[in-house]
Structure formats: structure tokens, C-alpha cells
Amino acid sequence: MKEITQEVYLKWYEDMLFWRKFEDKLAAVYIQQKVRGFLHLYNGQEAVLAGSLHAMELGKDRMITAYRNHVQPIGMGVDPRKVMAELYGKVTGTSKGMGGSMHIFSKEHGFFGGHGIVGGQIPLGAGMAFADKYFKRDAVTLCYMGDGAVRQGSLHETFNLAMLWQLPVVFICENNGYAMGTSVERTAHTTDIYKLGLGYEMPCGAVDGMDPAVVAQEVYTAVERARSGGGPTFLEMKTYRYRGHSMSDAQHYRTKEEVEEYKKIDPITQVKEHLLENGFATKDEIKEIDRRVKSFVSECEKFAEESDYPPVEQLYNTVYEQQDYPFLPHKL
Amino acid sequence: MRTIQFREAIAEAMSEEMRRDETIYLMGEEVAEYNGAYKASKGMLDEFGPDRVLDTPISELGFAGIGVGSAMLGNRPIIEFMTFNFSLVGIDQIINNAAKMRQMSGGQFNIPMVFRGPTASAGQLAATHSQAFESWYANCPGLKVIVPSNPYDAKGLLKAAIRDDDPVIFMESEQMYGDKGEVPDGEYLLPIGIADIKRAGDDVTIVSFGKIIKEAYKAADELAKEGISCEVIDLRTVRPMDHKTILDSVKKTNRLVILEEAWPFGNVATEITYQVQNQAFDYLDAPIVKINTADTPAPYSPVLLAEWLPNAQDVIKAVKKVLYKD
Ligand SMILES: Cc1ncc(C[n+]2csc(CCOP(=O)(O)OP(=O)(O)O)c2C)c(N)n1
Ligand SMILES: [Mg+2]
């Protein structure tokens, strides 16, 4: 694996902070009703993404996840301004405003969505790996899902097929403890999610998902196994989300103390401490990063605000390849 | 009369029936401890306990099928889908098992159960979370499909659905749960398969159902100011359909507009159109107009969603068209 150097830690700090602040901004503009619909934020889970990106070969490997998906594409190289614009429903957005919060896509940057039906992306991830194997490309797919999603039949059917055909895919469950208001304990007999791999003899294990260095190492091993023809791996990342499931969630299912406990091992704080303790950055340098992040977030907001809404024709010209497709009229 | 919210009407209907009949249970995602994703089962875990109000994992295929299986052996399950968009994960159990069991077994097994939850769009939720499958389910023999539009109808029809001996699809809306309406204190049931004339009128018939009917009311109010009198019929039950109420009205007004939140191809409005042209052709003074969502998946962007979703203005235009006043 690429060494985890001072630069890597600096990048992790800046990236993760940017993701956090970017989403804090989304929450703020949501309250102003500039962004509507659902808004699922990644706050707290950033180390899973930062570590994974370090282990992947960007430009070659691919990623697919569920609806908690604003910052992954940014990590993979998508212009954050376009992600913000998508949430505003603007034509400059990643899907031209068609998808919104839950459906960010970037073919160019290897980000395959952004999926709203829980568990629906799991077979898709294996299918992407199937195509890469079919065409003998040596790319690997990282397929993410939540702790709730692993209870869908789609996971079990896909695990069997992925093992049978030894597909180059890494399945990563981001276990943030809850599926909406339901804890893992309340809906499963086996609560060690990684053990779901055992029945399929898929290499599997649990990982500290709050430390990007640990994540990077484990994901790297899995990615290289897949790349070298060793088939799939299933990793359970132990992580946490600080905010509610979406924006309207009173969070009666957990205590404030529990949230505070996790904030003590916050990935951004951990990386910041690592920077300071090892003399990788001074307090002033950290402040400079914080300033840069803040100003870029504002730039994203400005871009989204100033962009135009899509033209009405766009309702029709994204559905089929055939541009003169005979849609039925729906009103006079 | 007292006024309650739609979500309270749903909870009351389920609770009253569960008090009366111990074979009934409620099962679904977040129905118990969270009191329902939209609080439509508030207080039910407390009253009935975890054996009868059950939180499930996100396993629609599994719990839909468990509902059907238990119905074969004496339960009368109420299965909640957080929204009917997610029923697609479990639709095999509904179409292939719940709807077929009685006929395939020569009448040995009936499936007295209700699948319920919100349908159709609810703001900018984009393509996978804004779908209306009324016509899909209504297309399937063996099922009944109910789509109420106010708390009173919801309570009376849900109680009837729970008592019905066949599988019933019962569709609500996230955008209706907060709606308030008059609901009497005492027990009542409403018959399945009977439409309701919500506004009486002479000039034109508007047929609709579910939350979108509110756009028909707005249109009727506007048109009344211009002296145009609309009869608004709420289907309430999509299958079996109350053709008689529709035909009687069309024979009186001679004009028909249908408002349905669904894609236009082969939907409930299409079925009504066929029946009316077939049975009341000579009464029609104008071609029937149906108003639906655009023939595309729902877009996220607010400007496109406004174009996609039918509204009162669209109804007004349609009414004027069938009256040749445009
Ligand atoms: C098939 C399906 N059922 C239900 C839902 C509603 N829903 C959306 S997110 C969610 C919880 C998912 O939890 P988890 O997989 O742990 O992911 P997290 O939100 O924690 O990232 C539910 C039940 C859905 N979108 N799709
Ligand atoms: Mg979760």
C-alpha cells in the first residue's frame, strides 16, 4: 500500500474537514428550504471514505453506495460545486438536477451512485465487478451498504454469486449502529455483521471505522485480493453517525451521551491530534486549512445559488436514449 | 364532531380491530418502538406489546411472505411498508402468493391480510421514492385496492379492510398523515368498493382518489366562482371499482375529467375511460380527459417536479376543455 505519510495525514484532515463542513452547510441550507426532500448526512463516518480512497486506485477502481452519498464522489474527484448544485436541483448539478440528494453519479470519476432502495446497490456492485472481469480490466469495485441493508435478500443472493464467480468486488458495510431508529441488536440474531460472510466462505472481518489508517490497511488487503483474482471480501466498518437519519428525526432511540462518546473518537479530531503530536502541522497551519475549507464551502454554495434551474424539456430528454421518444401526454 | 389527524385515524382503526380480534398483528419497519416512520402506529406497542406490534429489519420480501404464511394458519396480519415504493422488494409475495393462494388451492386457503403504507409522491424525493402503483396492484386479480383521501374514509375503510377475508392493498400518503378531519367517536365501517360523491354538481364530473383529489377540490372551488358546477367523485376503492356511481354522474353531467397521480400508460383513469365510453357513449358531450403525472420517472428539481405533478390549474383547463370553454 502507498505509505501513510505526513502528506496523507494532511490530506485526510483537509478532505474530511471539507466533507464535514460541506454537509453542515447542506443542513443549513436545507433548513432554509433551498435543498428539499431527504438529506442523509455522513457526519462521523468520514474515516471510512478517507481510508478507502487511500487503498483504491483512483481513476481505475469504482465505488457504489446507498443514499448517504454526497461526499464519496467528492473524494473520488467530482467538483463539489456540482454536488452542491445537484442538491439545489440546478442544471449544473452532477445529474443536471434530476437525482438530488440521494442520487449523485459520476461516470467520469468512477462513482456509480447514489441509490435509494435499501440494498438495491449490492447486486449492482457485483455486476460492475462482473463486467470488469468479463472485459479483463483489472479494476475493483467497492460496494458500500448500511447495517440495515445487510438484512435484505439482495445481499445474500449477491454474496453467493460473487463467491461462485470470484468477482473483483469488496463489500463494505458501514455499521453506524442504526438503520433509521432501529439498532442492529433489535433486528438481528447475529449482531456481528461481518460474520454474514462466513456462510459463503467469503473472507470477512470487522474494522475500526473511525481511524482512516486502519481502514486503509484493511481495504487495501481486500482490494488487492480482488485485483489479483482472489475474489470478494466483506468488511464491517464500526462507525457512527452523529446526526439524525435524515432531517426529521427526533432521535429518541439513542442518548445524547452515546453521541458524545463517539465524538471523543471523531475521525477528524483523531487525525488532527496525529498531525499536532507528530509535528506534521502547527496550529497555524491547521488554522490555514480550516480557513481554506470554509471559503471553498462558501464557493460551492455561491455556485449552486447562482446556477440556473433546468429547462422544462429536460424532464423528457434524460429518460430514453431515443430523443424523439413518443411520450404520452399527461395533461392539456 | 371531534377532529383528528389522518395518522390518528389509521392508528385508531388498527387498534380498535386489534382489541376486538386477537389474531391481528402489525408488522413492519419502525412500526413499534419508533411509533411508525410517520407515527401512524403511535402508542400501539405500548398497548399491544411486542408480540403483536413487531419491528422488522429492512427485509420486505421476508416479512411480506411471513405475513402471507401466517395468514394461511389463522393470523390476520397488517403489514406496513414504509412506503409502497419499497413494496417492490416484496411484491413477489403479494402477487404470486397473497393474491393467488385462494384460487390455486381451490378455495382452501384465504389470505385475510392488509398491506398498507403511503403511496405516490411526497415532495422532492426523486425517481424511486415518488411512485404510484395503484394500477399495478389493481391489475392483479385476487387483490383489493383501497386509497382513501381523508381521515373519516381512512378509518372506516381500514377497519373494513382488516375484516375482509381477502388480501387488501391500503394506500395512504406522507402528505396526508397530518390532514385533519371529522371522525365520530363511535365505531363505524365503510363498505369496500363504494365511491363517494364529495361535491355534488351538474356541469362536469371529476373522478379522482387519494391525496391528489385535493387539487380537484381546489379546481372545483375556482370554477364555482365562474359559475361552473363540478361533481367530484372520490373513488376510495380502486378495485373493485364502483362503475355505477361514475356512470350515473356522467349520465347527468355528460362530461368527464379524471385526475390520477400515476403515469399515464394503462392506469386507473384508462380503465374508467374504457368503461364510460363502453357504457355511456351516447351520454358524452365531449371526449374524456385524463390528467396524470408526466410519462417519466419523477424528477428531483423543483421546477421539473412542478411540471411533472398534476395540479388544480391542470384540472381547470381540462374542465374548460370538456365544456368547450377554452
Ligand atoms: C427497500 C427499502 N426499504 C425501506 C427504505 C426506507 N429506509 C431508508 S434508509 C433506511 C435505513 C437504512 O439503514 P442503514 O442500512 O443502516 O443505512 P444508514 O442510513 O445507517 O446509512 C430505511 C429503512 C428504503 N429506502 N428502501
Ligand atoms: Mg446504519
From TrEMBL, chain A:
<dbReference type="GO" id="GO:0004739">
    <property type="term" value="F:pyruvate dehydrogenase (acetyl-transferring) activity"/>
</dbReference>
<dbReference type="GO" id="GO:0006086">
    <property type="term" value="P:pyruvate decarboxylation to acetyl-CoA"/>
</dbReference>
<feature type="domain" description="Dehydrogenase E1 component">
    <location>
        <begin position="15"/>
        <end position="312"/>
    </location>
</feature>
<keyword id="KW-0670">Pyruvate</keyword>
<keyword id="KW-0786">Thiamine pyrophosphate</keyword>
<dbReference type="InterPro" id="IPR017597">
    <property type="entry name" value="Pyrv_DH_E1_asu_subgrp-y"/>
</dbReference>
<comment type="subunit">
    <text>Heterodimer of an alpha and a beta chain.</text>
</comment>
<dbReference type="InterPro" id="IPR050642">
    <property type="entry name" value="PDH_E1_Alpha_Subunit"/>
</dbReference>
<dbReference type="Pfam" id="PF00676">
    <property type="entry name" value="E1_dh"/>
</dbReference>
<keyword id="KW-0560">Oxidoreductase</keyword>
<dbReference type="InterPro" id="IPR029061">
    <property type="entry name" value="THDP-binding"/>
</dbReference>
<comment type="function">
    <text>The pyruvate dehydrogenase complex catalyzes the overall conversion of pyruvate to acetyl-CoA and CO(2).</text>
</comment>
<protein>
    <recommendedName>
        <fullName>Pyruvate dehydrogenase E1 component subunit alpha</fullName>
        <ecNumber>1.2.4.1</ecNumber>
    </recommendedName>
</protein>
<dbReference type="InterPro" id="IPR001017">
    <property type="entry name" value="DH_E1"/>
</dbReference>
UniProtKB/TrEMBL annotation, chain B:
<dbReference type="InterPro" id="IPR009014">
    <property type="entry name" value="Transketo_C/PFOR_II"/>
</dbReference>
<dbReference type="InterPro" id="IPR005475">
    <property type="entry name" value="Transketolase-like_Pyr-bd"/>
</dbReference>
<feature type="domain" description="Transketolase-like pyrimidine-binding">
    <location>
        <begin position="4"/>
        <end position="179"/>
    </location>
</feature>
<dbReference type="Pfam" id="PF02779">
    <property type="entry name" value="Transket_pyr"/>
</dbReference>
<keyword id="KW-0786">Thiamine pyrophosphate</keyword>
<protein>
    <submittedName>
        <fullName>Alpha-ketoacid dehydrogenase subunit beta</fullName>
    </submittedName>
</protein>
<dbReference type="Pfam" id="PF02780">
    <property type="entry name" value="Transketolase_C"/>
</dbReference>
<keyword id="KW-0560">Oxidoreductase</keyword>
<dbReference type="InterPro" id="IPR029061">
    <property type="entry name" value="THDP-binding"/>
</dbReference>
<dbReference type="GO" id="GO:0016491">
    <property type="term" value="F:oxidoreductase activity"/>
</dbReference>
<dbReference type="InterPro" id="IPR033248">
    <property type="entry name" value="Transketolase_C"/>
</dbReference>
